[in-house]
Design a protein that fits this description.
This protein has 136 residues and is an alpha+beta fold. It contains seven helices and four strands, in the order βααβααβααβα. 41% of the residues lie in helices and 21% in strands. Bound molecules: ribavirin triphosphate and magnesium ion (MG). It is an enzyme of class 2 (transferase).
C-alpha cells in the first residue's frame, strides 16, 4: 500500500553536509520525494512536532537542537514508506540501536544528534505532514 512519511534532515545532518547522502539513499531505495524544502524551524512548530515528548527530561534540549539551524523537510512516498524510511534511518540511538548501513549507524554517535527524523506510524505521518506541509 502506498504511504507517505515525513522526513527531516536535522540541523546536525545539514551542518555536516549530509543532505545529498540522505536524498541519495531515499532515491536508491525506490522511494519518491513529493515535497522538499530547507527551512528554519520556529519554536511553535518544534513543540508541536515533538508534542509526544513534552515533559520528558530531554524535551527542552531537543527543541533547542531542532531550532538551532536549518533543516530539510520532505514528504516521501512509496509502498510501506514509513517503515522503509525508518529502516534507512536506523534506530534512535546511533550506536546501540542503529544497524551499520543505516544513516544513523553509519554517521551518528549520540542519541540527540541522530541526523534524521521519520514519522513512526500512519497517524504520526498524517499529523506531521499536515503540520510541515499544510498546502500539500
Ligand atoms: P525522531 O522522532 O526524531 O525520528 O526519532 P525517533 O522516533 O527514533 O526517536 P523518538 O523517541 O521519537 O525521540 C525523538 C528524538 O529525541 C531525541 N532523544 N533524545 N537523550 C535522550 O534520551 C533522547 N531520546 C530521544 C532524539 O533526537 C530522537 O531522535
Ligand atoms: Mg519519533
Amino acid at each position: 500500500m502506498t504511504e507517505r512519511t515525513l522526513v527531516l534532515v536535522k540541523p546536525d545532518g545539514v551542518e555536516r553536509g549530509l543532505i545529498g547522502e540522505v536524498i541519495s539513499r531515499i532515491e536508491r531505495k525506490g522511494l519518491k520525494i513529493v515535497a522538499m524544502d530547507l527551512r528554519m524551524v520556529s519554536q511553535e512548530l518544534a513543540a508541536q512536532h515533538y508534542a509526544e515528548h513534552d515533559g520528558k527530561p530531554f524535551f527542552n534540549s531537543l527543541i533547542e537542537f531542532i531550532t538551532s539551524g536549518p533543516v530539510v523537510a520532505a514528504v516521501v512516498e512509496g509502498p510501506r514508506a514509513i517503515a522503509a524510511w525508518r529502516q534507512i534511518a536506523g534506530g534512535t540511538d546511533p550506536v546501540e540501536k542503529a544497524a551499520p548501513g543505516s544513516i544513523r549507524g553509519d554517521f551518528g554517535l549520540e542519541t540527540q544528534f541522530n541526523l534524521v527524523h521519520g514519522s513512526d506510524s500512519p497517524e504520526s505521518a498524517a499529523r506531521e505532514i499536515k503540520l510541515w506541509f499544510p498546502n500539500l
